[in-house]
């Protein structure tokens, strides 16, 4: 029970933000798809990697731009358990965030899956331009690892061991 003028004023002051939020909610404009582009997960198009690579080894989904085009790109990469990339380099930095699963990473030109470091969901990884590295998901992993990757293209990916598989079963 409100007993004083102060109590009435305080109660109305407390209720004001809720009243304004309710009014704003009813007056909100519908989303403009030319200004805010939304792609729901079931509409993201996943593609298998390179020719000759098993479909259930690595997949990617281009969200914006492209790795071989000039400018900013943003993509998702999905590594399946038991597969890793061979050592390779890029001409530009790549900024990576593990979205789900555990991504196993290492730097260097010597391919040694046992020396990779586990990067669980939420981990940020910066791949420095012109430095060799490899990654994927070790055999026995419970789920694929999904990684969000951003960079500036073209990245000019180069494999360090031409003539050997770019994706390896581990």
Describe this structure in words.
The chain has one domain (41-169): Jelly Rolls (Sandwich). Helix content is 14%, strand content 37%. The chain has one helix and 13 strands. The strands form three sheets. A six-stranded antiparallel β-sheet has the order 1-2-3-11-6-9, with no helix packed on it. A five-stranded antiparallel β-sheet has the order 8-7-10-4-13, with no helix packed on it. A two-stranded antiparallel ribbon has the order 5-12. A hairpin with a 6-residue loop joins strand 2 (58-64) and strand 3 (71-79). The radius of gyration is 24 Å and the shape is globular.
Write the SSE topology.
Blueprint: H1 5-27, E1 47-48, E2 58-64, E3 71-79, E4 83-85, E5 88-89, E6 94-100, E7 102-107, E8 117-120, E9 124-127, E10 133-137, E11 145-153, E12 158-159, E13 167-169
Antiparallel strand pairs: 1-2, 2-3, 3-11, 4-10, 4-13, 5-12, 6-9, 6-11, 7-8, 7-10
Please name the defining characteristics of this protein.
170 residues; mainly beta; Jelly Rolls; six-stranded antiparallel sheet; five-stranded antiparallel sheet
Summed up, what is this model?
14% of the residues lie in helices and 37% in strands. It has 170 residues and is mainly beta. The model has no long low-confidence stretch (mean pLDDT 89).
Q: CATH homologous superfamily?
A: Jelly Rolls
- Evaluate the radius of gyration: 24 Å
Estimate the mean pLDDT confidence.
89
What is the count of DSSP helices, taking H or I runs of 4+ residues?
A: 1
Please state the overall shape, judged from the principal axes of the Cα atoms.
Answer: globular
**How can the largest sheet be summarized?**
6 strands, antiparallel
Distance separating the two termini:
71 Å
CATH first level: which class?
A: Mainly Beta
